[in-house]
Amino acid sequence: MRSTSNPAFRHLPANAGYGQYGPNVGFNQPQGGVPGYGMPQAPAGAGDRPMTVDDVVIKTGLSLGAALVTGVLTAIWAQGQVDARSTGAVFGLMVVAMLVGLGLSLVMIFRRKPSGPMTLAYSAAEGVFLGAITGVFEMIYPGIALQAILGTAGVFIAMLVVYKTGAVKVTPKLTKWIIGATAGVVILMLANLLLSMFGVNMGLRDGGALAIIFSLVVIGIAAFNFLLDFDMADRMIREGYPSKWAWFAAFGLMTTLVWLYLEILRLLSYLQSD
Fold this sequence. Notes:
274 residues; mainly alpha; transmembrane; BaxI_1-like
């Protein structure tokens, strides 16, 4: 498989699919099987059928639902805690949820096996993490939560349309550019974090003009990462990965969605603080 910047897809086993038995249908492919031969079938005795676009859509929808439910409930609770001047509880829950989400993601990435319960648990943990942050931001900037959700949904849908229509082709050159750009912004963010501990301000996260430009760049790179995610899910479908692997595709898409939402929330806070 072609390389990707999403860690969820970088460790996919190459021999998990049915090979020639997988349906030649993906996000960017017409419905139906190989012309003149009908829909290819899984090998006799296979324990699972090949995954389809519907499998990815359903599993991703369930994962998003888990994140939204826990996120909304946590955001409501967090606002109550802020009103009661008990921000320590909010911060504590945020850290715990972040660590749980990180732990689950690492297990799934290196275990290299799809798991519906673990994907939903990861999504729920990320929902709690994002909900805690959003609740605090919503108290400071009323209406920012809805704006961030709509912005994230808009970018996701726009990139899906771009990919499905073929307006932007996922070529090896584009893939290398996206991976390089992603690595670059991650290094800058880590450097900014480390230097801030020593009182050095790079201006990337202080809400100034440079911070706004940096956030716009990160949002753009996160958006282009969706193209790689869609392409990897598409290849999993075309190579006949069993349907249970749709949970892994959903997990990969969720990681990018979480990153994008956080960056959009940060950008909106910069714009509203001016």
